[in-house]
Amino acid sequence: MARIAALPDAHRLAAEALLRYLQYQGGIVDGETLVTMVGDLADLWERAAADGAGVRDIVGDDPVGFAEDFAAAYSA
């Protein structure tokens, strides 16, 4: 979470919103899986910020679809 908090504003807000969505809608109940997912989420947004990619470059035109695809990678 500290890594997400350290992101530039646009990336931080997007990461926090995505995390909030995933916590409510993602169906992840296993703590170990959740920790892995948050680490991967931080990696994604850190790389995006370092590469100068905007939020829309990452989530595209369908942020909910992006979030659901991201969560699907962590479901059993």
Which descriptors apply to this entry?
mainly alpha; single chain; about 80 residues; 5 helices
**SSE-based structural type:** mainly alpha
Topology order in helix (H) and strand (E) letters: HHHHH
Average pLDDT metric: 91
Strand content: under 5%
- The tally of strands reads 0
What does this structure look like?
- The chain is an all-alpha fold.
- Helix content is 75%, strand content 0%.
- The chain contains 5 helices and no strands.
- The chain has helices spanning 2-5, 9-25, 31-51, 55-59, 63-72.
- The chain is globular and about 30 Å long.
- The termini are far apart.
- The model has no long low-confidence stretch (mean pLDDT 91).
How is the topology of this model organized?
Layout: H1 2-5, H2 9-25, H3 31-51, H4 55-59, H5 63-72
Helix pairs in contact: 2-3, 2-5
Short summary:
The chain has 76 residues and is mainly α. The chain is 75% helix and 0% strand. It contains five helices and no strands.
